[in-house]
Amino acid sequence: MYAVDISPRFLNHTNQRAIAKEVPNITSVLCSERGVSLPPNSVDIAFICDTCRHLEYPQSTLASVRRALQPGRTLMVIDIERIPGKTCFETSCRGRVQNI
Hints:
The chain is of the alpha/beta class. It has 2 domains: 30 residues, no CATH class; 60 residues, no CATH class. Helices cover 24% and strands 34% of the residues. The chain has 2 helices and 5 strands. Strands 3-4-5 form a 3-stranded mixed beta sheet. The longest helix is centred in the N-terminal third of the chain and has 13 residues. The chain is globular, with a radius of gyration of 15 Å.
């Protein structure tokens, strides 16, 4: 399992949580702002949560995710639309599973 992030601090946090929860199979990957830095066809499912609106280069980043996915595998994206005064975290999550 890969944990991919642009922030070394977030990766460190993920590593510490994995150690505390005794999850041994996580490999942290520091990526660039243009791509996920994973080998082609190396992933059978990609999960992106509350991130898409923060991507500086969404087309190249998502293209790199697609290259990393094995053919016919799954990309799951959950992003949160927060509308001040109208939505809260619990009611604003939307997700869709799509094989690409």
